[in-house]
Amino acid sequence: MENIDKVMWCTGCFLCMSECPQNCISIGKDSLDTKIPVINATECISCGKCLKVCPQHTAVERNYPINTYVGMGVVNGAKISSASGGVASALYKWAVNNKYCCVGAMWNKDKKSVELAIATDESELEKFRNSKYIFSETNSIFKRISEIIKTLNKKILVIAMPCQIAALKSALKKEYENGKIIFIDIVCHGMSNDSYFEQHLNHIMLQGGADNIAFREKGNFVFSVYNNDSCVYKANYDEDSYFLSYLEGVTYRENCYHCQYAASERIGDLTIGDFDGIDSESIKNDKLRTLKYPSMILVNTKIGEKLLQEVDSIVKEKRLVAEAFRYNEQLKKPAQKSLFRSEFVRRYEQSHDFEKAIRPYWKKKVIKKHIYNLKIYKLAHIVR
Ligand SMILES: Cc1cc2nc3c(=O)[nH]c(=O)nc-3n(C[C@H](O)[C@H](O)[C@H](O)COP(=O)(O)OP(=O)(O)OC[C@H]3O[C@@H](n4cnc5c(N)ncnc54)[C@H](O)[C@@H]3O)c2cc1C
Ligand code: SF4
Ligand code: SF4
Ligand code: SF4
Question: What is the best residue among 1, 17, 47, 51 to mutate for testing ligand 3's pocket, by most ligand atoms within 8 Å of CB?
Fold first, then answer.
């Protein structure tokens, strides 16, 4: 029997580890410090279970969208503050009110890593809000969801990245088919290793702690770090080496450049993302029309359509499916590698030091920005 040594482009979902009857798979790291499964060969009994459940090896059902909406989540008539249109928060709120348990990504206690976690009441939902541009760990989520369904007989609403939904669908096929779980995937261009983020945080904070972190406050791409409730670091996306290199495709896990979920067939009952390139003038609702980052909602199954119609805190308007696909690159193909990727890889493999590895890229970006600013300054003086 073969095992997961045969898997190409591992996403780091660690479902194989959760399912191994010998408990002989552990979390290891490759030459770029990317988390990958490692098998203890002396304990492996070659049962093949890890390969059978792996979503990168065995195909998981996907669907082409049947409907598309532009939308936003509202509370007391105002848009919910979040990365994009606040749709995720509105869905979670509906779920909790209807006695579902919710699954999403939250920062760990030390704010240096992110994991999928479970929330059962409204007070916990805040932690799921906003995009965390860092690899999120699944940890024990597969077993915990299964236990909740079995012992508490509760239903579950999951919002997560497509590769994580694929793993959850593979692990919990029976529960999904019995209507116990609703899956919502997020349009995704990639995740960076958490060790890069941890190193960068230590670098900018000089080892100081953080009690909150945001990449997209009120929708804007601003990276902020808070300590004791006051902001101790704030940088626009192009003023921070971690954030810019992430957005420009330098630092993703290698599998993200080959992502099978960056496609029109979707893994969730709904898909949510930014409605890139929408002709806002054609939106009828005044609040939606003036929104900077309205949400795109793809309806991929009847379960998804029923859910969307039941959530009354989402203001939405129907659009053509083709419109969503026209401008959102991650619905067509995986993210492109930055031209600096190979140099970053070489330098990181040598040093295992994020700041050292990213330095030449960052220097170039800083110089380019200075030249640009100088040109604008000179132009302004000539015009005057
Ligand atoms: C890593 C990442 C890459 C993205 N890339 C794109 C893109 O290329 N194109 C696009 O249109 N949209 C992208 N998005 C989605 C977009 O940024 C918004 O998150 C989405 O539109 C939902 O916005 P919201 O306001 O409804 O929800 P928010 O309140 O912003 O909620 C975000 C939801 O995302 C989940 N989440 C956040 N970070 C992670 C994480 N690291 N791992 C797993 N789940 C997470 C939370 O649990 C929550 O359910 C990306 C999001 C993330 C996290
Ligand atoms: S994709 Fe997931 S299940 Fe497959 S080898 Fe990687 S961690 Fe294991
Ligand atoms: S083949 Fe079986 S025993 Fe070996 S690692 Fe995979 S699941 Fe575990
Ligand atoms: S790009 Fe694909 S493989 Fe990478 S995190 Fe996103 S969904 Fe997963």
Answer: 47
**For atom 53 of ligand 1, which residue has the closest CA?**
131
Half-sphere exposure of 299 (CA within 13 A, CB side): 19
For ligand 3, say whether the CB of 45 is within 6 Å of any of its atoms: yes
Give yes or no for residue 14 CB within 6 A of ligand 2.
yes
Q: Choose the residue to mutate in 70, 186, 266 for probing ligand 1, maximizing ligand atoms within 8 Å of C-beta.
A: 186
CB 128 within 8 A of CB 119: yes
Structure confidence by residue, pLDDT tens digits, 313-344: 999 999 999 999 998 999 999 999 999 999 99
Q: What is the pTM of this model?
A: 0.95
- Which pLDDT score, from 0 to 100, does residue 119 have? 96
Give tens-digit pLDDT for 277-307.
899 899 999 889 988 889 999 999 999 999 9
CA of 163 to the centre of ligand 4 (A): 6
> For residue 69, which of 91, 47, 52, 101 has the smallest C-alpha distance?
91
Residue corresponding to tokens 């009994």? 45
Pocket of ligand 4 (CB under 6 A): 11, 161-163, 188, 190-191, 255-256, 259, 261
How would you label 152-174 residue by residue, b for 16+ Cβ within 10 Å and e otherwise? eeebbbbbbbbbbbbbbbbbbee
At residue 189, does pLDDT exceed 90? yes
Q: Which residue owns the Cα nearest ligand 3 atom 8?
A: 20
pLDDT digits (tens, 9 = 90+) for 46-87: 999 999 999 999 989 999 999 999 999 988 777 777 667 899
Give the C-alpha separation, 49 to 52, whole Å: 5
